[in-house]
Amino acid sequence: MKIAVAVAGAGAMGSRVGLYLTQAGQDVVLLDDWQMHVDTVTEHGLKVNTLGETETYPVSIRNFKDYSVPVDLVIVLTKAMAAEEKIKQLMDQGVITEDTNVMSMMNGLGHGDLLRKYIADDKILLAVTMWPAGFNGPGEVTLEGTGNIEFGRIDGTVDNFVKELNDIFNEAKLNGKISDDIVTSIWNKALVNCCFNTYCAVTDKKIGEFGAYVHSDDMLIPLMKEIITVGEQKGAKLDFDATLNKFHAMYSPDVVGLHYPSMHHDIHNGRKTEVDFLTGRVAEYGREFGIPTPYCDILTHLVHQIEK
Amino acid sequence: MKIAVAVAGAGAMGSRVGLYLTQAGQDVVLLDDWQMHVDTVTEHGLKVNTLGETETYPVSIRNFKDYSVPVDLVIVLTKAMAAEEKIKQLMDQGVITEDTNVMSMMNGLGHGDLLRKYIADDKILLAVTMWPAGFNGPGEVTLEGTGNIEFGRIDGTVDNFVKELNDIFNEAKLNGKISDDIVTSIWNKALVNCCFNTYCAVTDKKIGEFGAYVHSDDMLIPLMKEIITVGEQKGAKLDFDATLNKFHAMYSPDVVGLHYPSMHHDIHNGRKTEVDFLTGRVAEYGREFGIPTPYCDILTHLVHQIEK
């Protein structure tokens, strides 16, 4: 089956998803605001670095403001803080119609709530992806490693579109997987990011260095409990013990112990972080539910304090 | 009146107090562990910088291990983490006898509880000092500005020794003041240090920069409330509104807005901080009293994480 796909946000992950779908024969357009990036890819194609080798591939790319063709699927991979504006823009320009499925593939929490403001439940898809990807500058990405895309309808329905999209992702070698509980998957990923992104950004440490502190569990455990308590109110089924074990395993240099989480890169490159969609969002939900979230509160503020 | 005084810890503040008492005719010895500092002061006197001028003054100084003369008063101005060991050493060596008054002039919380392990209440004095002082290296300090020493017995008694010591401090131009509630004064000073030392160290900001963050009150208020709640259990009378007003006034460049608190200097000079005697001690007392202290807990851990 062939569908028309717009990938909103042609950063590292948007480029990966858009390129793979293009190569599998789908009708894909990448959308981005950065005209220099759009022009470079249009003129020279997308330059892809893999294990020291560079290849260039043609992909279709447009500035958001220059695109107004209705599509079957919009995959949202903008920065979290830009998502709402972009969804409204794509609706205004007729890219998103009543028949368009809209999938959030962004990190963090609250994207489903955002989509529900504009899109009917039976057109909303949520996804969690574990594909790594790096953006090197206009027109150039690094695509290495492997991953998958776990996704599903916000209401858990598995309809024909979901099944077809899974086939499309697998034909594109994106390793699709229909989730039986996408909300839980999103919270599980957010739980990792809430804990390590914030702490490693504030302490200026790699994941393994953070874990080497003798009381690191005393920092993680109360934070995890806040997030799990709030997440359960939002319908996620989260396992404290399994998560803590997973965290401990991450400290190893063979896993991700030698890495800084992405928020650390954002801080050091002077970019605004997505903390409001991680601990900040948990704190916001906590206030709605009357659940105290002192750890999420203070970490959110500390990250904002150190943002340039 | 003339008394024999040992100043335990010949850093910046110990040097200031010891020098002024010496110049006022008291029988003073400075004690320190750093032999190079002891030798330099012994050979050349204490070099004092004031507003660009340098003068050198003779003061008596010994290595802790080389002193065993009983004194009337020991003023404890070591690093907080060294205080217990030094008190025991001075008792073992006969410097502290049953007749010796022992005064903690250190920053932070818990020094009274420590002294009570070894010294009778009617020989314990607690002090808060606002004198600034800077240590430049072996044998050399910077002494500028002005200040005072507020002090009193741990049990509130104003006996003859307290009155005489106040006269001695005033003759020495140290601006003595007998406190009518030294416990409250100590907690009031600790409240400032708990809030600004930790936050400015973790965020790498000056006091005014910290205050410029639009939600800085949301960081301070819950932390202040924890400290005030615990402090009240320890007998301190703390005023939330007055403290918050004082904090806001501190942001001004005319007050201390352009300064980094001392913990920031410790972090950047690779020294261990005194956080365990500030938020760490509040958290410890909180556990004793069953008062939750999530802000003190996490700030203490964050400071330890960023200590080299």
From TrEMBL, chains A, B:
Question: Could you tell me which residue ranges the Ketopantoate reductase C-terminal domain spans?
Answer: 181-307
Which InterPro entries has this protein been placed in?
6-PGluconate_DH-like_C_sf, 6PGD_dom2, ApbA, KPA_reductase, KPR-Related, KPR_N, NAD(P)-bd_dom_sf
Q: Summarize the protein's role.
A: Catalyzes the NADPH-dependent reduction of ketopantoate into pantoic acid.
Q: Name one GO molecular function term.
A: phosphogluconate dehydrogenase (decarboxylating) activity
Q: Name one GO biological process term.
A: pantothenate biosynthetic process
**Name used for this protein in its record:** 2-dehydropantoate 2-reductase
Q: Which biological pathway?
A: Cofactor biosynthesis; (R)-pantothenate biosynthesis; (R)-pantoate from 3-methyl-2-oxobutanoate: step 2/2
For this UniProt record, the keywords arranged alphabetically read as follows: NADP, Oxidoreductase, Pantothenate biosynthesis
Known catalytic reactions: 6-phospho-D-gluconate + NADP(+) = D-ribulose 5-phosphate + CO2 + NADPH; (R)-pantoate + NADP(+) = 2-dehydropantoate + NADPH + H(+)
Q: Which Pfam families match?
A: ApbA, ApbA_C
Signal peptide segment: none
Protein family per UniProt: Belongs to the ketopantoate reductase family.
Q: Name one GO cellular component term.
A: cytoplasm
Residue limits of the Ketopantoate reductase N-terminal domain? 5-155
Q: What EC number(s) has UniProt assigned to this enzyme?
A: 1.1.1.169
